[in-house]
Amino acid sequence: MSTAVFFGLRALSQTLTTQEALSGVFGSISLATWIFLLVPQLILNYKTGSADGISLAFLFVWLIGDITNLSGAVWADLVPTVIALAIYFCIADFVLISQCLYYNHINSRSRRQQSVVSTTSEEEPLLTRRRSSDTIGLPGSHRRRSSARSGRRDSLSKILEEDDSPNANPWLRNTLSILAVIAVGTAGWAIAWHSGVWVPTIDDGDVPETIQAAVGAKLLGYASAVCYLGARIPQIVKNYRDKSCEGLALLFFLLSLMGNATYGASILSHSIERDYLNTNLPWLIGSLGTMVEDAIIFVQFRMYASKPTSSSAVE
User: Fold this and answer.
1) Between 169 and 156, the higher pLDDT residue
2) Which of 44, 125, 202, 296 has the most CB atoms at less than 10 Å from its CB?
């Protein structure tokens, strides 16, 4: 963190205005945030072996938004970094969706098999069940095996819970993760500035003709904004119906909030000229608008947080 601050202060001491530096820093932090965005949810799904908590409709609509965003970036002939990031978004979406479909398929097949086994055991004659228990072992051995299996499941749950909160509450761990992403983004911008990879765009109040002419790209930008705004609605509805946010990575939505906030801040820090804001309006709507929906999901995390029962408190 100190290294990032050092680079940042040193960069500001050179021929770079505060407005240009802030725009570059916010944009770099937003870039780092989007790169790490899906990692927490991928890890949580892998640890639990389930994707029941996340809405597939949310992911598919988000994928459509990323595809339209990529199409608009290519059409408008934006810088290669923006296009590469848009391609990365689409690939990451496919990875997360594939993981969710895989776990949903595996778990649904497992539930069907358990249902068949339970139905067969209920229809099995009592005498046959007694004989099978006699051949297997002493009376009560089946109960002991069942309790052992449930004990293993409880142990697995405890291990996962311990992994999720190691000597610190989740909010503290997530805060440290966010600070680390901010440090990476700031250091990345400073290094790019000193090496000459990043050069501030001079704002003369005019919008380039190539951007003005890309009306179709702007329409695709609005389409992606609508998709981003609508994507979270299925997730909010699912959380409300289930009265639970179990299976969702809180850090995933925290990073989303920070990514959208810094992206909007990078645009507004660069210029507040009317033509410039009008050109970037679709992306401003998509980024700042979804922050409101992320706030709703945070409220749901708080509302549906599991509270310790009296029995568990006694234990």
Assistant:
1) 169
2) 44
Query: Quick one: tokens of 127?
Result: 């005498």
Query: In whole angstroms, what is the distance from residue 303 CA to residue 298 CA?
Result: 9
CA distance 135 to 127: 12
pTM: 0.73
The label of the residue with tokens 């358990």 reads 114
Give per-residue pLDDT as tens, 192-214: 887 766 666 655 544 444 444 46
> 180-184: which pairs have CB atoms within 8 A and are 24 or more residues apart?
181/29, 181/32, 181/33, 181/36, 181/255, 181/258, 182/4, 182/29, 182/32, 182/258, 183/1, 183/3, 183/4, 184/4, 184/32
Residue 72: CA atoms inside 13 Å, Cβ hemisphere, count? 22
Contacts of 88 (CB under 8 A, 6+ apart): 34, 35
How do residues 213-264 score in pLDDT, each as one tens digit?
467 777 888 888 899 999 999 999 999 999 999 999 999 999 999 988 988 8
Nearest to residue 270, comparing CAs of 61, 100, 97, 20? 20
